[in-house]
Design brief:
The structure is a single chain. The strands form 3 sheets. The chain has a 4-stranded antiparallel beta sheet with strand order 1-2-7-4, with helices on both faces. A two-stranded parallel ribbon has the order 3-8. It has a two-stranded antiparallel sheet with strand order 5-6. Helix content is about 40%, strand content about 10%. By secondary structure, the chain is of the alpha+beta class. The protein has 17 helices and 8 strands. It is elongated.
Length: about 350
């Protein structure tokens, strides 16, 4: 009896990836996004990365897969869905609540995605002895978005994030670099057309032009990456957002096609993350912060940035009931917290 031929390696690899929770799969040659380095260098030269010094420190490695690992031949691009079940903008009119970006309301995606990437990579190495692999989430100098677009997962929208026809804007991206020559897929085609919904939705005008973002004005950058006082002219635009911002993603019309059934259960929102009380956030000390945000990507910003953000949100609320808690923070040991509290009291007084 003649043995039945196995499906191509790429098909078997995709099946394994889906078994481990990935909703999107694609393959690109390692040199499939040659424009990435030039665009990155221009962005850095314009200073639009703000205080994210690591972006410039490893720009050469970040600019191309071969810059990080000369032996890489193919990039396996993978996406894990965190499509929300509720409207991401539902708390916009709840000034007593803090808004946390959808991606951070469940388990830490770094842990979930990396564990799955390693499982897929182990399968590949066992299947093709002699091959080599490296796995990356977003803590390494890897440009996941242009690589994912080159692999056919979607395209980079005018907000610069990846947009998928099947999953909208709600994908955590990971990559497996390999020494294997795998058959690449077709690159994603830009389908934004004349739409400018994402740019129009930005509360702080962080988009100087389509497909370009100025991190220094982006609420996600300001509330997460920026360490220190937030510029005065941007504080009112933050509204009640205490960690990240979903406005440009939520505005994208392609999200109506996102299939919630593909969302990974690990990213279901925890009750304390879905609609946290600003009063509770303002009262956090270090120990309480670590306890509340254990197992969450939020834990890395520390108590200082979270309470700073909550104070700004309280100042934007118009609710005088926050005054007592804000007054207690005016002599906080963290200067940016004290600064935000004093500003917020001034806003409530006026």
């Amino acid at each position: 009896m003649v043995a039945e031929a196995l499906p191509p390696l790429e098909q078997r690899l995709e099946a394994v990836a889906r078994e481990h929770g990935f909703a999107a799969f694609g393959i690109a040659r390692a040199d499939a996004a040659p424009q990435t380095a030039a665009r990155l260098n221009q962005w850095l030269a314009e200073g639009r990365h703000g205080g994210m010094i690591w972006m410039e420190n490893r720009a050469e490695q970040r600019g191309s897969p071969q810059g990080l690992w000369p032996d890489v031949r193919s990039v396996i691009a993978l996406g894990m869905s965190y499509a929300p079940g509720l409207d991401p903008l539902a708390l916009a009119d709840r000034p007593d609540r803090g808004r946390i970006s959808v991606y951070a309301q469940g388990a830490d995606y770094h842990d979930i995605v990396k564990k799955a990437l390693k499982a897929v990579a182990r399968w590949l190495v066992a299947e093709v002895p002699g091959s080599d692999v490296k796995v990356f989430v977003d803590t390494a100098p890897v440009m996941e978005k242009p690589l994912s677009a080159a692999a056919g997962l979607g395209w980079q929208g005018k907000h610069s994030n990846l947009v998928s026809r099947d999953h909208g804007s709600w994908l955590f991206l990971g990559a497996i670099y390999t020494t294997l020559d795998l058959a690449p897929g077709d690159p994603g085609r830009d389908r934004c057309g004349s739409c400018s919904a994402c740019q129009d939705a930005c509360p702080t005008q962080a988009f100087p032009a389509p497909y370009r973002v100025d991190a220094r004005r982006c609420i996600s950058y300001l509330t997460i990456e920026h360490d220190g006082p937030i510029p005065l002219d941007l504080r009112r635009g933050i509204g009640n957002r205490v960690y990240g911002c979903d406005d440009c993603l939520a505005a994208c019309p392609w999200n109506k096609f996102a299939d919630r059934a593909h969302a990974h259960r690990a990213f279901l929102p925890r009750a304390e993350m879905a609609a946290p009380s600003l009063a509770d956030l303002l009262a956090l000390d270090d120990a309480e912060f670590r306890q509340v945000f254990a197992g969450s990507p939020i834990k890395r910003i520390g108590r200082g940035r979270m309470v700073r953000n909550a104070a700004i949100a309280a100042g934007n609320s118009g609710d005088a009931r926050f005054r007592a808690r804000l007054e207690a923070l005016t002599d906080d040991e963290t200067p940016m917290v004290a600064d935000a509290a004093r500003w917020a009291l001034g806003e409530l007084a006026s």
